LysR family transcriptional regulator
Amino acid sequence: MNLRQLRYVVATADHGTMTAAAQALFVAQPALSRAIRDLERELGVELFARAGRGVALTDTGEEIVRYARDALRAVDAITAVCSAPAGGRPGGRTGELRVASTLTLEPELTARLLPEFARDQQAVRVRVIRCDGRDAVGAVIRDGRADLALTDLPVPGDLAAHPLEQREIVLICPSTLRIRDPAPVAVLDGMRLIMPAPGGARRAELDALLTRLGVAPVAAVESDDRGSWLPSVRAGRGSLLWYRNQVEAADGVTVRSFAPPIMATIGLVHARRPLTPVARDFLVFAKSRG
């Protein structure tokens, strides 16, 4: 058994197919498959079983992957400690930083936080894991597939949360729709809204917000294609609830605050266990920018 085999097994568990795992690790798929077969032969167990076009962990495989994640985290932590410069300065780390994010907040992570962090941590490998909502973020963190996650707060108490910023949720409506600024929350009652498709995590979170506000809008357009939302507003199909800072262009639409304001807190979360030095550095960096 070696670390390379453990990394291959964990990657296959994360990606669901050996082909996708090999692509993510930049190795040939036959080499990855052979290494996993050799490990199964050595251990005398079956780690994966066929599931449709992919593979799924067996019960024994799930247990082994949990231990493999712990082993790889320990190795990465040891590597980071040994590569830290004299005096404990955080710059110059090596290792891997795995950050999960909800789909809504991913642009914040990939366009701002990670590029700024990477300028001072050029030896760190960064992997972003996209999650459909807070529940998926929690699952990724608990399973050890990510070190940290950017998400809306609050989260369940078994996760450690570090608030970064408060974000204003605003109403984006067609320019032909006359609404005063700020608008009363009650204006949403019966309003035609552009909403995520039903059944998904983003729709569930929006429905929970609307229930908390005590309003019942009408779903005019239901789509998970975020790129279509603003064009739908401009076309007059409905209005949209979104973070103010993510409205890239206001041409052809009207942006209104609410009275009282609707605020959401975003933050980084992680499992209640020690972070790797690289993850700890990123947490400190993000809180300083928050």
